[in-house]
Chaperone protein DnaJ (Micromonospora arborensis), 388 residues
Amino acid sequence: MRTRNAVARDYYGILGVSREASDDEIKRAYRKLARQFHPDVNPDPEAQEKFKDINAAYEVLSDDRKRQIVDLGGDPLAPGGGGGAGGPGGPGGAGPFVGFQDIMDAFFGGAAGGARGPRPRTRPGADAILRLELDLHETAFGVEAPITVDTAVLCTTCSGAGTAAGTHLATCEACAGRGEVQSVQRTFLGQVVSARPCTVCQGYGTTIPHPCPTCAGDGRVRTRRSLTVKIPAGVEDGMRIRLAQQGEVGPGGGTAGDLYVEIHERPHDVYSRKGDDLHCRVTVPMTAAALGTRLTIKTLDSEETVDVKAGTQPASTLRLRARGVPHLRGTGRGDLYVHLDVRTPTKLDPDQEKMLRDFAKTRGEEVAELSKQGGFFSRMRDAFNGHA
């Protein structure tokens, strides 16, 4: 089967307008012709075909992207693209594509040929992150901490414009301000329009003939700033505090991004933290655990006296309510848990040993008795079997 090359139709001629016609002129011409050749008004078969051509011309010339293709010498409704009225892909046709856009999608995933326009020189800035180390007392009760930020700020010489004093941006001559250059190629599928960023203006559509001597045309400069961040009470390790628009100023003086202050809590020499609760370990002598005693605990913001009951066992825990970390964005505080380690003496002098042996004898806990009747584990077995 031989392939016939498609010939671009004169859409301007169909509507009877010039190539420089405005959108309003094109719309007026279409309405005038549509009233004249509409099938309800003019039943002539030739008028019906004319009406189809008028609709096709208006469809093309009222779409900026399709009109641009026509101005470049192409035909967005060419038969090879399957979208021409009466072509192989038109109504009732069997073409593989519905329209010109489908060809674009097949080649470029729908990205090519679109009316992207020039890239803006002014763009939003990036966010910044800063690590801040704090003590437990500062994270618990809050603090106003000074920080130093090294970011991009607005160039005060050009106020973000990027141009030297008394000068302005110039329209790129290579792309006429479009930011991209296009070309039309004929393939076995029809006409394909390809676009690429203009290499002269880097896709901006404008150039800077005389850049600002301070920022070299970027509209921003890097500097070091000092800020004060308010840390709320109850923050935890790893949390981030957002300072709106305190990050990087964007290119061309664009809106600054945000600054995130990430909290890192230094280890405390006494307390460990789990959420809003605090934990600490206190060692008490064996005699104090047996007889009972009173401890003075220094919390983060006060001193508390707690009673250790007589007969306290190892690994016992005392709970001090509302002596932990204040709840973030709320009322109340966590608790303080005091874990008791009962200390057994490792060395005894003869008098101390005698006193302990006498004490054990009064309780029937002589060391020699534990070795009788099969030893300690045998006594445990007998206790479980009900022979004690």
